[in-house]
Amino acid sequence: MKMLKVFNPLSLFILLWLGLSFSYAQPFDLTGFWQNPGGSAIYRVRQIGNDVYWMVDGTAVGSYANVFFGQISGNTLTGTWVDLPGSPNLGGGNLSLQMQSNDYFIKVGESTLYAAQEWRRQGTSAGVSPSPQNTVPLKLYWNAQLEDNFSTPTAIGEQAALADGYQFVSIEGYVFPNQEPGTVPLKLYLNPQRGDYFTTATIEGERDALGSGYQFVRIEGYVFQTEQPGTVPLKLFWNGGRGDNFTISTSGGEQSALATGYQLVRIEGYIFP
Predict the structure, then answer these.
(1) CA distance 135 to 138
(2) Cα–Cα distance for residue pair 230/132, rounded to 1 Å
(3) 90 three-class SS
(4) Strand ranges (DSSP E) for the chain?
(5) How far apart are CA 86 and CA 146, in angstroms?
(6) What is d(CA 218, CA 160) in angstroms, rounded to the nearest whole number?
(7) Residue 233's pLDDT is what?
(8) Which residues constitute the domain of residue 85?
(9) Same domain membership, residue 174 and residue 218
(10) I need a labelling partner for 152 at 20 to 30 A (CA). Which of 59, 112, 198, 235 fits?
(11) Of 98, 121, 144, which residue sits at a domain end?
């Protein structure tokens, strides 16, 4: 007499649970000592499952120190930070970070300003100095009627410039079309009243734009936040009489700006010449 095999739902549940456990295994292990390139603070990072904690270590009273708690989903870490007593200000906010590798992650979103942009595990060279390959030209256009300079590396920006009567002047350098380690977004703003395009990559530039009635248009590309081998400064000039922001990196562009009454405001970032 043949014995019938009895279906055991518990066995199926265990198999499914094991399969899910393996498929959702966390590929990152961030536990260790980390540093923000260009900064002196040490980040003590501890990961437990998908939960990540950090504390900024070794900062004197009067310097910023904070703690963070967040959770990993895929290659994104989102969470909340708060400053600790002894910091110049007691701020806080939300951060969205993207893991580029097990040794390197970058900031991709924030609710309030957090100075650091990237983190590298101590003792590694992750995220250093991408090459000028896969870059696109940052083109300068000029509209004589509006007395406006417009720097753009995108096809849509170029089409808009030509459609509005701008003329091509020069290639100011080369930027990344996609985010690379050590880079920050190059953002385009427009003031409809002035008819002025404003290309900026700094928090200060963004604040100035929004405070002066400019509207965000799009991210044009990505530039280095700090100087890298083989790069040149991307400089912002301003002419109050024209009401024009002028973002350039070539010596010819700088000479033209100074000769026509523009003043240097700041370095917005660094690009390949």
Answers:
(1) 9
(2) 9
(3) coil
(4) 32-35, 42-48, 51-57, 66-73, 76-83, 92-101, 104-110, 118-121, 136-143, 148-152, 167-175, 183-191, 196-200, 215-224, 232-239, 244-248, 263-271
(5) 50
(6) 13
(7) 95
(8) 32-121
(9) yes
(10) 112
(11) 121
Same domain? For 46 and 146 the reply is no
- Do 117 and 164 reside in the same domain of the chain? no
Q: How far apart are CA 66 and CA 84, in angstroms?
A: 5
* CA 91 to chain CA mean position, Å: 21
pLDDT value, residue 20: 42
Round to whole Å and give the CA distance between 148 and 199.
12
The answer to whether the CB of 187 falls within 8 A of the CB of 219 is: yes
Contact between 52 and 30 (Cβ < 8 Å): yes
pTM (predicted TM-score): 0.55
Residues sharing a CB contact under 8 Å with residue 132, sequence separation 6 or more, in sequence order: 174, 230, 272
What is the predicted pLDDT for the residue at 130? 63
Position 22 scores a pLDDT of 40
Q: Count CB-CB contacts under 10 A for residue 265.
A: 18
Q: How many angstroms separate the CA atoms of 237 and 222, rounded?
A: 19
Q: Are residues 101 and 174 in the same domain?
A: no
* Among 157, 171, 273, residue whose Cα is nearest residue 224: 273
Residues 103 and 222 in one domain: no
For the sheet with 244-248, list strands across it: 196-200, 183-191, 215-224, 263-271, 232-239, 244-248
Tell whether 97 and 209 lie within a shared domain: no
